[in-house]
Amino acid sequence: MVKNTFMKTKPIFPLLVSMAVPMMLSMLIQSLYNIVDSIYVSRLGTDALTAVSLAYPLQNITTSVSVGIGVGITSSISIHLGAQNQEKANRAATIGIALTVLHCLLFIVAGILVTRPFLKLFTDDPAILSDACDYTYIVLCLSFGCLLQVTMEKIFQGIGEMRLTMYLLASGCIINIILDPILIFGLLGFPAMGVKGAAIATVIGQICAFLLYVVVYRKKKLAICIHPKYLCLDKRIILQIYSVGIPSSIMMTLPSILVSILNRILASFSSVYVAVLGVYFKLQTFIYMPANGLVQGLRPILGYNYGAGEVKRVKSSIRYSLLMTAGLMLLGTLLSLLVPSQILSMFDADEELMQAGVTALRVISLGFLVSTVGIVYSGTFEALGKGRQSLTISLLRQFLLTIPLGYLFSKIWGPVGVWAAFPVGELTASIVAVFLLNSFEGGKYSPFKTHEQVLTGKSSTV
């Protein structure tokens, strides 16, 4: 068993870079394969792209549950390692695997029962419905690869093995990218399977990545041990995992619910806007996934140092994360404002889709930069084991304001009103996030409060 005390001793900025950059790169690769997937599908026509867009909410729920529970596992492992409790850290990892197996079984049942009734809510077109069902049945009923891969990924992240995680996550993405054109268009002697081929390529990539995690775990000495002897009904650890994991899963499921509801609003104008929303959610991952990768690198640092009582290191980590995330968001804003047509051209957008998409990108991107605080502070609360505060921020970002405002604004400005609701939600969530962290434990973890301000209860400007 190896130790990972470097999270308590290494200077914060180099530590954050070493932990975050591999995850940012892996998230960029994952964003790339999501976009490549849609680019290949778009070659089949707008109907095929619409079918995959309709399948996105259910597919995202699978990822959300796996990542959310994984975040709970990461938080539990990091805090116990920081407190020098190896036994409980091992137990958290082992129990996390067992819970994931249970979730795999639940998704098989959900895939069979929910897929067609859900998708019929959004389209009456038989061809679109058939393609959407084909895609969704596969990615849900064979989601065990995704669930188990993400759990292993989060266990590795919890002990600081970010570079390994990058290589293994990238391997699954690359396998998917290679298989996509082969299975979609029928290359190298394979039959052309269309949208169904894209789904099969996705699950094969996920399963291969999980198997690689298992191989690496068995070959390499790590700071954690997964073994049946640690499997027990430890209610405190299960509660610790779910208290962070459930809010995190809900938080990540919100885009699925958001897309489903906004699809209903946009469909009343034209199916083109449904396709635009689907394309946007593919594109925005190219900005938000690297930011999420940075937060993934941040979580174990915060959890470990929070468990070890290192307040200054926690605050310093948050400050650096805010600066780095703001840089990513600024880049995304500039690209969306300056070259939206070039971005949308990757999807073979026709004139109508191009015109609607350019407007959508430019309006929604106004919320990228202000979302920095919401993103980082939400991840901070997850790392500290405070899922409720994290969920509050995310609800404001992607649900409580965006949906009613999208509906209201659409009555005034049409589809543009839906796009305008996004930056309003981001701004509100960031303001509330600052308030929540300033209120948590007297504000001692607020990156913009000095020790004297915490003691006297004075606020600082942000």
Explain what the structure shows.
- The chain contains 18 helices and no strands.
- By secondary structure, the protein is mainly alpha-helical.
- Helix 4 (86-119) runs antiparallel to helix 5.
How would you concisely characterize the structure shown here?
By secondary structure, this protein is mainly alpha-helical. The chain has 18 helices and no strands.
Q: How far apart lie the N and C ends?
A: 43 Å
Tell me, briefly, the overall form: globular
Along the chain, the helix and strand elements come as HHHHHHHHHHHHHHHHHH
- Mean pLDDT level: 83
Q: Tell me which oligomeric state these chains represent.
A: single chain
Determine Rg (CA atoms, Å).
22 Å
Strand content: under 5%
Main sheet: strands, sense, barrel: none
- Count up the helices: 18
* Stretches with pLDDT under 50, minimum 5 residues: none
The percent of residues in helical segments reads over 70%
Number of strands: 0
Query: Class by helix and strand content?
Result: mainly alpha
Secondary structure layout:
Elements: H1 6-9, H2 12-42, H3 46-82, H4 86-119, H5 126-141, H6 144-158, H7 162-185, H8 195-219, H9 235-267, H10 271-307, H11 311-338, H12 340-344, H13 351-364, H14 371-383, H15 387-398, H16 402-413, H17 415-439, H18 451-456
Helix pairs in contact: 2-7, 2-10, 3-4, 3-5, 3-6, 3-9, 3-10, 4-5, 4-6, 5-8, 6-7, 6-8, 7-8, 9-10, 9-15, 9-16, 10-11, 10-13, 10-14, 11-13, 11-14, 13-17, 14-15, 14-17, 15-17, 16-17
